[in-house]
Specification:
25% of the residues lie in helices and 29% in strands. It is globular.
């Protein structure tokens, strides 16, 4: 079922006007957080990426970037399409049950 969800997301993104202009260097877990909770679960973070430099880690759940609540991968992709390389934003994550605010600076896609 997760593969079907990924195919649906990719199809919507390819068919949309969304253009990804920047990157944080995160690797999302497309199955999402446990128990269907809102947010974007990170499967991993690329070394030397903006996310790594900000302190994001594997297992973090991103729940907000700037003023935008992150409920799903679609929200996250929308933020990436709206931001520009060099922009900075606060990122609220859940880590081991605690809310933590980090600051990230978006980078260029690889």
């Amino acid at each position: 079922q997760a593969e079907d969800g990924i195919r649906d997301i990719v199809a919507r993104l390819v068919g949309s006007e969304m253009c990804i202009r920047d990157s944080l260097g995160t690797i999302p877990d497309y199955a999402g957080p446990p128990d269907g909770a809102p947010g974007l679960l990170l499967s991993d973070v690329r070394p030397d990426s903006p996310a790594a430099e900000a302190g994001l880690r594997r297992g973090d759940i991103i729940v907000q970037i700037g003023d935008r609540e992150i409920v799903s991968i679609q929200d996250y992709m929308a933020v990436l399409s709206e931001a520009n390389p060099g922009d900075s934003a606060p990122v609220m994550v859940l880590r081991e049950g605690e809310r933590l605010e980090l600051n990230v600076t978006f980078g260029s896609p690889r």
